[in-house]
Amino acid sequence: MNRPRASLRRLAWTFPSALLLLAAAAAADQEPAPTPAGADRFAGLWRGMIVNKPAELEVEIVVEIGAGVGGGLAGTIDVPPYRLAYVPLEGLRVDGDRIEFGFRRHSETFGEGALSRFEGTLAPGGGEIRGDYLEAGGARRLAFQLGRVGEPGEPRPEPVTPPLRALSERGDELRAAFNGDADRVRLLILMSPT
């Protein structure tokens, strides 16, 4: 009576071990995913904008694309205005002069892990990518443009930050600064720290 139980125990250990060995052998036989011909033209450090309204609402982005582990391309994206840095790109695909990739982020509208996508074309000469940015959920299609600013692994460019001037609590400095440009078009933005 003990003999069938011992055989079942041995079988219980042997079967998963055999599956693991088969899976390891199959993985060892697979070659890394090939990089499409010409895909290396997209490798680099790119800086640009997602353009909602030109010169009115533009969001700075930095994209780095390079060789991925095991072949193919991989990359990251920075969106400095949203304090996103080194967010992994997903679904990076190249087909001739076309590139597609996405990234996940938190969206107040679409929730955690919302996927935003880029679909672009490399310009002749390879110094610029232009295309469409599809906001998470595909609700809006905006233009984007990227210009090559370096090679993969180089330091990222500093984010563009407009100068801010701290003003006194009483408002005298604010009034003087505002009235100092009385003959020009002025824009005043008051921001609360809360």
Q: Describe it for me?
A:
- By secondary structure, the chain is of the alpha+beta class.
- It has two domains: 1-30; 39-150, Beta Barrel (Lipocalin).
- It is built from two helices and nine strands; from the N terminus they run αβββββββββα.
- The protein has helices spanning 2-29, 172-179; strands at residues 44-53, 57-67, 73-79, 84-88, 90-95, 98-107, 111-122, 128-134, 141-150.
- Strands 4-3-2-1-9-8-7-6-5 form a nine-stranded antiparallel sheet, with no helix packed on it.
- The radius of gyration is 26 Å and the shape is elongated.
- The relative contact order is 0.13.
**Dominant shape:** elongated
Strand order, main sheet: write it out.
4-3-2-1-9-8-7-6-5
Count of alpha/pi helices = 2
Report on the biggest sheet.
9 strands, antiparallel
Please give the CATH class of the largest domain. Mainly Beta
Supply the number of structural domains: 2
- Content of β-strand: 35-45%
Structural class: alpha+beta
Radius of gyration, in angstroms, nearest whole number: 26 Å
The counted number of beta strands is 9
> What do the pLDDT scores average to?
76
Q: First CA to last CA: what distance?
A: 75 Å
* CATH overall fold name of the largest domain: Lipocalin
Fraction of helical residues:
10-25%
H/E topology pattern: HEEEEEEEEEH
| Level-2 CATH architecture of the largest domain | Beta Barrel
Q: What would you give as the CATH superfamily of the largest domain?
A: Quinohemoprotein amine dehydrogenase alpha subunit, domain 2
**Uncertain residue ranges:** 6-34
